Amino acid sequence: MRGMSTETAPQRLNAEQRAEIDALRAQRAETRRPTVPALEEALYQAMPVLDHGFVRVVDYMGDDAAIVQAARVSYGRGTKQSRQDAGLIRYLMRHAHTTPFEMCEIKLHVKLPIFVARQWIRHRTANVNEYSARYSILDREFYLPEPDRVAAQSAANRQGRGEPLHHAEARGLLDLLREDAERAYDHYEHMLNERQDGAVIDPSRTGLSRELARIGLPLSAYTQWYWKTDLHNLLRFIELRADPHAQYEIRAYAEVIADVVRLWVPLAYDAFADYRAGGARLSAKGLAVVKRLLAGEAVTQEDSGMSRAEWRELMQALGRGEA
Amino acid sequence: MRGMSTETAPQRLNAEQRAEIDALRAQRAETRRPTVPALEEALYQAMPVLDHGFVRVVDYMGDDAAIVQAARVSYGRGTKQSRQDAGLIRYLMRHAHTTPFEMCEIKLHVKLPIFVARQWIRHRTANVNEYSARYSILDREFYLPEPDRVAAQSAANRQGRGEPLHHAEARGLLDLLREDAERAYDHYEHMLNERQDGAVIDPSRTGLSRELARIGLPLSAYTQWYWKTDLHNLLRFIELRADPHAQYEIRAYAEVIADVVRLWVPLAYDAFADYRAGGARLSAKGLAVVKRLLAGEAVTQEDSGMSRAEWRELMQALGRGEA
Amino acid sequence: MRGMSTETAPQRLNAEQRAEIDALRAQRAETRRPTVPALEEALYQAMPVLDHGFVRVVDYMGDDAAIVQAARVSYGRGTKQSRQDAGLIRYLMRHAHTTPFEMCEIKLHVKLPIFVARQWIRHRTANVNEYSARYSILDREFYLPEPDRVAAQSAANRQGRGEPLHHAEARGLLDLLREDAERAYDHYEHMLNERQDGAVIDPSRTGLSRELARIGLPLSAYTQWYWKTDLHNLLRFIELRADPHAQYEIRAYAEVIADVVRLWVPLAYDAFADYRAGGARLSAKGLAVVKRLLAGEAVTQEDSGMSRAEWRELMQALGRGEA
Amino acid sequence: MRGMSTETAPQRLNAEQRAEIDALRAQRAETRRPTVPALEEALYQAMPVLDHGFVRVVDYMGDDAAIVQAARVSYGRGTKQSRQDAGLIRYLMRHAHTTPFEMCEIKLHVKLPIFVARQWIRHRTANVNEYSARYSILDREFYLPEPDRVAAQSAANRQGRGEPLHHAEARGLLDLLREDAERAYDHYEHMLNERQDGAVIDPSRTGLSRELARIGLPLSAYTQWYWKTDLHNLLRFIELRADPHAQYEIRAYAEVIADVVRLWVPLAYDAFADYRAGGARLSAKGLAVVKRLLAGEAVTQEDSGMSRAEWRELMQALGRGEA
C-alpha cells in the first residue's frame, strides 16, 4: 500500500473543529500503559479520504508487544527480544491464532458517504456511534468521483467498475449528480425551515421533523461516526475492503487505515501483508495442478477438473497470464 | 399491538413474483421437526408495510416447546404440560435467562426504505443478505409518508416527530420529495443507459457502472434483504423498535414482526409483553419514591433526588400525570 | 472424512431417553419449509463419539437451495438448475462471500467431556444451553482414552500429542485416571448426600450445595448442551477442529459433525472441502517460491526469505517431503 | 459494593512475577490519549480474589468523557461541563442508549478456578486468551472455600446455596476436596513425568502429553486468562454476576471488577448503580398492582393476576415483606 499522507486536510474542517483538534493534540499526560510514538504523532489529525471525507485516530490500546503478552498470558510485558516477538507474531498469523490480535483496539472518527457507510457497517464485530440525522442537521456535502473514476460496468467482474467513460460523458453525468444533490439539499433546508446554524428561514412556516426531511437526500451525502474495533477484525476489514474487488470508494478508506495499522503495529502488519493480504489460497484442485506442474507435467483447464473461471484465477495467481 | 393483517399485498408484487410465492406455498413435505401450523399458514406471504414495503416469513426453527426443551437440555420434546411450559417460559423471561430463547430462529425477506435499513442494521446479532445495487438495478420505488404522518420536530423528544403539519403544507413537501425522487430515478436510468429489464436506452452511449449510478438515489429508495435472527434478539429488536421513541417507519415493521412472533411462539410472546414490552423499569431513586408514596408520604420532585425529566417519566409510568 | 456411522449408541442412553427419542422420531408433520430427507432420517438419533459422548441433530433450517435463495434475495426458491446452484455455491465459497451460508442453521444436542467443552465454547458465534451442575446432578461418566490414544507430548508440534506410550505404561496411567475419577464421584455423592435419582444417602446429614460439590470432579467428566449455529460458523468450527493440530478428542466431534453437514448441504460441503478444508494457503513469500520453481529455478530455504518452519510447511504442502 | 482493597496479594505471586509487575509499574510514557490517574495508580497490580485468584488491570481505553465524546460524535473532547456530562451519561443509561458505553474498553489479567471460568466465558462479547494446558503445565493451586461458605443447597432458590453447614461437617468435606485435589495433582505430575520447572522426574519413563494429563485435574484448579471487553458488556457482566443469584465465587470477581469500574468511569458507574444494578423491573401486572396500591386499594396475590413467586418478588422489591 501507499506512503502515508500527513496532509491534515484543514480545508475539510471549520475553524472550531480545527481548534478542538489542536486543543486535543496539545494535551499531554503521563501513563503506565504501552504507547506507540508514531501513532501518538498522528493522533486526532484528520487524514483526508475522497473529496470531503477523513479518518481520525481518536484512541488506541496496545502495540505489537501486547499481542505477544496476551499470547503468553504473561505477568510482565511479555517481550523477550524484538526478533522473538516478530517470530511469534508471524507464527500466530500463519496458524490463524487470531485471539492475541484481538487484544489491540483502535477507535476512529470517520467522515464518509452514506453508500460507503452501508458497506462498512456490514462488519458486525465493531462498536459504532453515528451522527444522528434524527437529532441534528447534516452538512451540505456530497461525494462526487474524480472524472477518471467515472467508469462503465465491468465486463469481467459483474459487480464492479471497468473502463473509464470519456471525459465529456463523465462530466455530463457528474453535473447531473451535483445538480440533483444540490437541489435535494436546498429542499432539505426548505423542509426543515432551518439552516444548520439554527437560523429559521421563514418564521411563518413550521419546519418538518429532521427524521423525515433527510429521506430525500442522496446516498452520496456524507455522514460521520465513531468506529471502534480490535486489530483482528480491523485486519479482516482491510483484507476485504482494500481488495481490488471492493468498490473504489471504500478501498480509499481501507488503504488509509492500512497505513495507520503499519504505524501502530508494524510487526503484525508485516505478517498480515505476507500471509493474508499477499500470497494466494489454492483449492484442493488448484494445489493438485501446482504439484503436477512442478512434476513437469503439462496441465490444461480441461484436465484440471477446474471451471474456466477458477483456472483463470489460478493462472493469474501463478503469474502465468492466460497460459 | 394490532391484529394481524392477512392482506397479501398483491399490488406490491409482479406476476412473476406472485407465481414464485404461490409455487412455494403449494409445496408440502413431511418433517420430524416441530412445526407451527399458524405460522405455516402465513409462510412466504408478503405482509404489507408502508407504501411499498413488506415482510415475508421465509423459514423458522423451533416453537414454544423448543425453548423449554433447550432450558431442560432434554432428550425428548421437553414438554410436560402446557401450563408447566408457560410457567417455565415466564420464569426464564422474568429472570433474564435469555439463552433458551436463542434456540428459536426465524428468517425474513423484507422490502424497506434505505433509511429504515440503516437503523435496522444496527442490530448486529443477525444474518443479512441485501440486494446488491453494485450488481443489480434497483426498483423505481420510494417511500412517501401518508400526509398525516408529515409532522414537525417534537419539542418534548428532541429526536422525534411532534404535531402533524397542515395538510396543504404537507402536500407541498410530499410533492417536492416525489419530484426529486422521480428525477433522481430518471437520471439513474440515464446514467446506467439501461432499464431494469435489461433494455439499452441509447446504443451510442456507454452506461455508468451500477455501483456509481446509484449514489444519486435518495434515502427513501427501497431496498430488500433476507434477515435471519434468533428469538431473543428478535424480541430485543421489537422492544427497541416498536417503542414510541423509534421512528414511525421502522415501528411499522416492528409491529408486523410482533404479530408474527405472536403466531409463532404465543407463550414467549405473552411473557415478553408482560415483562419486557409492558411494565416499567424503576431506578433506585424511583423505587425509593414509590416506597415513600406507598407509606403515605407526600413526595415532590425537589426532595426525590431525581431530575425533572426523570420525575416526569416516573409520574407518567405510575399514571400520575403531572402530579 | 469418514463414512457416517448409523449406529445409534443405544448403550449410551437409558430406557427413558430411548423412549423419548423414539417418540420424537415417530412424529410427522406437514410443512411448507424446505426439508432434507437424508437429514430427517438421522434426526434426533444419538451418533456416538468417544466412550460416552454423542451428537444428536435436534433441528435444522435451510438446505443448499436456501444459500442460493439468500444470495439472490429471491421471492421464490431461488433454484434454477442444480448445476447452476452448485456453480454459484462454489463461487460464493471461493470468494469468501460468507453471508449466504449464514442463512442455514442447525441445532445439536451434544454430550462431551468438560475439557472438550472448554475448547468448543471458544467459538463465540453460537447459541448454547448447558446442563446446569448448580441445579442438577451430573452423571457418573468420565472420558478415558483408548490405550492407543495415550501418547507422549509431540516434539514437532509443541502443543499436541506424539507417539503412543507403551501399552503397559498407558494402562497404568488409565488406571490412575479411572480410580481418581471414581473416587471423586464417590465423594461428590457423599458431599451431596444424595444420589442422582434423588435418594438421600444419610438422613442424619445435610448435603452440600450442588454448585460446590461439583468442584472436585475432574475435567474428564461429561457434560451436555444444546448448541445452535449457522452453517458459515459451523464450517469454521470444522475447519479448525477437524484439523490435525486440534486435540484428538474435539476432532472426533468435528468429524461426526462434518458427516452431518455432508448429508445436510452436500453442495456447500463439497465446495468447503475443495476450497477451505483442502488445498493450501500460500504466503506472499511462498507464492514467490512456487513461481520460481515453476520457472525451473532451484530454490533453497536460505534464499527463499522464509524461516525453516515456514519452508518445511511449504514443502509439505507441495508434497516435496524434506526437499 | 465494597471499598476497594489495595492489598496487592504479594503472596500470590512469585519473585519473578513481582519483578515483572514492578518493572511495568515503574515505566512511564507521555501520551495524548485520555488517562485516568486513579486507574493508572492501580494498573498492573494483582487485586486478590478468593484464595489464590486475582484481577489485574492490564490496559484501558477511554474515560467518562469518551462516552460523551462518542455520543456527540465530536471533533474535540466532547466535554462541556462536568455536570452536563453527568446528565448526558445518566440520560444514555436511562434510555438504554448503549453504544456510547461501548467506546470504553478494558483489558484484565485474571486468575480464577476453572468452574468460575466456565461461567465467565458465557459472556460472548469479549476477547479472551487463556493459558494453554496443552502447551504449558498448570500450577499446583486449587480453590477451597472458606468454611463458612460451605453451605447446603438452597430451598428457596433451586440453583444456589442456602445455610452454611456445621463447621465440623464443612471441615470434613474440605478435607476430602483438598486430598482429592492434591492426589490428582501428584498424578498429573507423575503422568507428565515432569515438574513445572521443567525437571524430568524419572528419566526411564516417557511422559504423557500435557493435553491428556490435565484431564484428571479437578474443576477447582486455577487457570488464568487475558480478558478484554467494552464498558457496556462489562456492566452487563457485573449486573448478572454481582447479583445475589450468581454463584458466590464468580460474584467475588464481579465485585472487585465493579470497584475497578468505579475508579475508571465514576459517572457511568453511578448511573449504572442507580438505573441498572439498583431499582427494580416491574412487569405490566406488577405495575398495575403498584398503581392500585397507590390509589389506596387493597390488593392480594389472588386478585393480582400474578403467580405466587412473582407476587413474593414484587412485595420484596417494594419492601413489604410477606405482605
* Number of discrete helical segments of chain A: 12
Strand content of chain A: 5-15%
Task: Find the structural class of chain A using helix and strand composition.
Answer: alpha+beta
Q: Using only CA atoms, what is the Rg of chain A?
A: 24 Å
Detail the poorly predicted runs of chain A: 1-6
Oligomer: homotetramer
The biggest beta sheet of chain A, please?
5 strands, antiparallel
In the sheet with the most strands of chain A, the strands line up as 2-3-4-8-5
Distance between the termini of chain A: 28 Å
Order of helices and strands of chain A: HEHEEHHEHEEEHHEHHHEHH
3D structure, described in words:
4 copies of one chain form a homotetramer. Chain A is α+β, with helices and mostly antiparallel strands and 323 residues long. In chain A, 42% of the residues lie in helices and 15% in strands. Chain A has helices at 15-26, 37-42, 64-71, 82-94, 114-120, 167-192, 210-213, 231-241, 248-264, 266-277, 284-294, 308-317; strands spanning 29-31, 47-49, 53-61, 105-113, 127-130, 151-153, 161-164, 222-230, 280-282. In chain A, strands 2-3-4-8-5 form a 5-stranded antiparallel sheet. A two-stranded antiparallel ribbon of chain A has the order 6-7. In chain A, α9 crosses α10. Mean pLDDT of chain A is 92; it is low at 1-6. At the A-B interface, α5, β6, β7, α6 and α7 of A face α5, β6, β7, α6 and α7 of B.
